[in-house]
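Example record

The entry below shows one chain as it appears in the dataset: sequence first, then structure tokens.
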Amino acid sequence: MPDQTDWEAKAANILKAELKRKGVTYAQLAELIGDKEPNVRNKLSRGKFSAAFFLECIDSLGVAAIRLNN
């Protein structure tokens, strides 16, 4: 399996941070987007997911803006 790129890691970390900030669990996110918790958990742990998945999650969490720089 290929290693996670810096961009994949950044996307996964942004999404994980937003989940934590909103107090939403993987199970709750899965319900919001109509997916199964193991699928969501695996995508986030691998950091391998599409831009569409990322945007769907961010939108479901009600995130209006994303900071790309610290």
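Notes for this example: The mean pLDDT is 92. The chain has four helices and no strands.
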